[in-house]
Amino acid sequence: MEESLLSEREEAGRDRSSCYAAIWLCCHVRSRGRWDGCGRLTAFFCLFTVAFWIGVTRNLYCNPDALRDVEPPFNGQLLPANFTLVERKYLLIQFTKLVDVYDDTQKHVGYFYDINLFIIMRFGFSDANGRIWFEARYASFLSRFKPIIEYNVQRCDAGGVGRPSTLFELKEVWWIESYWRCFVNCSRLFNLAERAAPGQVRETLIPEASFGLDPKFQVSFDGWLAPTLRGQITGPVSSFGTGVRQVWSMHLQNATDGRLVAKAQQHFVIGSATQDMRVLSRWKVETLIPSQLPNWVIGFLAVLDDIEEDY
Questions:
Q1: Structural domains of the chain ordered from first start
Q2: What is the pLDDT of residues 114-160, one digit of tens each?
């Protein structure tokens, strides 16, 4: 691997620095510049955050060394061309969002995970053997506070010998979509750009001026209200277990010729008793034009709603 690849220590340091900076700024403004109370508050939050974060994410981070001599699955695609996303819920406390991936034969090939603690995020994909292959990261420190999505998406082994060096930039097109002002029929739109990157890209204070410009692909999510039914074993269920929720479909198009590259459709099921009989999401993902876009990027796009939203 090249020296530009980030080590685990550098990754953790970057996350902690972002958290510390935000906490210090908030308490400094609130205390009107007085350091005594601000310093104690900052120290407490820093110690608590670091201890909790290390405990929850100790095995969830990009580790290029763990991938050095490993053949990327599915001929370098990391995921099969067609697969199913299965939301995983636990009965009680769950700090990590998990979405399992199954191929056409119902074989488990890995899972997506997402952990958010204040302004720190871990969003990536692990294969069935626990190896992290790619992550989505905020495009900048400022991106954490925006109401739209700005992600850099990159493989953990980017920059290694014989490994791809492409960085994907995902940006939400909020001024066209109806997601923030709809109720029945909703839409979310994203631009997906790509550029070469010799190694892991570090986070900057603000996004680059060219971030997400000249997109190679356009991603649209169309949703409509669908009735849902659930039970509950941890307490009484409200409204007789009935409800409504947006059910989504995804269409991924080539931005140049408009051809449909991939599509996905969501539906809902009732979880088991060990999942408190919650409403759980399922996605059926299908690649229509192979080799236009890596399968793992298509999977990342399809899982966005399950990861980003809290239901």
A1: 64-308 (3.20.90)
A2: 988 767 788 999 999 999 999 999 999 999 999 899 999 999 998 87
pLDDT digits (tens, 9 = 90+) for 187-242: 999 999 999 988 888 888 999 889 999 999 999 999 999 999 998 888 888 888 89
Specify the residue for token string 């990159």: 154
In 3D, which of 218, 100, 201, 197 has the Cα closest to residue 151?
A: 201
Report CA torsion sign: 289, 293, 299, 302: negative
**pTM of this structure:** 0.81
